[in-house]
Amino acid sequence: MGDPSRQYRRLRDCIQPDVLVLFVGINPGLRSAQTGHHFAGYSNRFWRLLHESKLVGEPLSYLEDRRLPEWRLGLTNIIGRCTTGIDTLDAVEYRQGVESLKRKIRRYRPHIVALLGVTIFRMVFSPKEQLKGPLDLGVTTMQLAGARIFLLPNPSGRNAHYSYRQMLTVFQVLRDNMEQSRK
Q1: Is residue 9 scored above 80 in pLDDT?
Q2: Host domain of residue 22
Q3: 0.85 exceeded by pTM
């Protein structure tokens, strides 16, 4: 029968020059690929977290993902291929995705790269840095292509590791860091 994800198109990045924060997801889920918009899953909390943390000035939905540059925010994924989960992604895709991300960072020069989840952080840094054990969310000492790395929880409804309150707190810390980088 084949892979059902092949029928969907890849999502376009939502990035423009002068971006302050570039959010980075792993890859689009099937619903995002179906709708053509980022973080479209029914249980995904990304858009609610953006508004409640005051990173954006009004409530947005996945249908308005192209508006993120209005707040100097950008959005991309490490891997463009949509899947039902990350278990079908392979090491080659991750390596290629990290190289592609570095090129985007060099091109758009965000002040902060906000990785959406511990899994992404480990994909980007573990092989080189030998990261073990739990990671702290928020500001990190890591950089990628000259940009500061900020670790956010994955906003997927599948992520049961963090409560909504914990997620919101870290998004608020990101907002404070973004405001500092404007100065």
Answers
A1: no
A2: 4-182
A3: yes
